[in-house]
Design goal:
4 helices, seven-stranded antiparallel beta sheet, 251 residues, alpha+beta, single chain, Dna Repair Protein Xrcc4, Chain: A, domain 1
Length: 251
């Protein structure tokens, strides 16, 4: 990978303890070294850590160069609330930038010497340009994200409207289907009821015919019995009369 593709840039607005005016720290982070430029608005300072210096510092702290760089970027790219920052005077107009951090429960401090720049205006203007460009990029990003959000919101509203429409159509379809089903079911029930009534009516007619037949047979049977009884009576009377005549003739 090309080094320029791995280079990072940061700019920290640092408010030191006991002061109200901030300083600005612009960092350029390479794979094995870093460059720092600092301004307070009137003066500026530079710290260009070479690969050799960085390797030596990392060895003193028993750290890989990459880990040392990552930790330095973390504290000089963003102000850490639990860290104590200092930007104190050093000989020949230089400054000493330091910050504290904890490692395995022990509070440690890193220091780097920053030399006075001979062209403070150029350094200050460069930091301000970087901040303006970063602000513009941030504004553009906010605008793009706002547009994306508005677009997503519009799409979500469309989806919601479509979902409601589909839900209403589903309800209407289910209602229509249910109504049709009820109508068919009621028609079947009416048909079954009519068939049942017809069947019951047929049973009643058959029962009436059977009862009528039974009554007719009973009447005929009674009539036949009566006729037989009458015939027997007549025969008995005739026989009695005949015997009476015979007795009379004998006497």
């Amino acid at each position: 990978m090309v080094e320029s593709e791995r280079t990072k840039h940061t700019c920290l607005r640092l408010v030191l303890s006991g002061t109200t005016d901030p300083i600005f720290i612009k960092g350029t982070w390479h794979p094995s070294r870093f460059d720092i430029s600092i301004t307070d608005g009137s003066s500026s300072w530079l710290c260009n850590a070479t690969e050799e210096e960085l390797a030596e510092r990392a060895a003193q702290w028993d750290q890989p160069v990459s880990e040392y760089l990552h930790l330095a970027e973390q504290y000089l790219g963003f102000q850490q609330p639990n860290s104590i920052y200092s930007f104190s005077d050093a000989p020949e107009g230089s400054k000493r930038l330091s910050w504290t951090f904890e490692k395995e429960g022990t509070k440690l401090e890193w220091r780097w010497k920053c030399k006075l720049s001979h062209d403070s205006k150029k350094i200050t203007v460069g930091i301000l340009d970087f901040l303006m460009e970063a602000n513009i990029r941030l504004s553009e990003e906010v605008v793009n994200k706002t547009r994306s959000f508005d677009k997503m919101k519009s799409e979500a509203e469309k989806c919601l409207t479509q979902g409601e429409r589909l839900c209403n159509e589903k309800i209407e379809f289910e209602d229509a289907t249910y109504s049709k089903f009820i109508s068919v079911l009621n028609a079947k029930k009416e048909k079954l009821r009519a068939l049942r009534d017809k069947e019951d009516s047929g049973k009643e007619v058959a029962e009436e015919e059977e009862e009528s037949t039974d009554k007719g047979e009973s009447s005929e049977s009674g009539r036949s019995d009566n006729e037989q009884s009458e015939a027997s009576k007549k025969a008995a009377t005739t026989s009695s009369r005949g015997r009476g005549r015979k007795r009379a003739s004998r006497s």
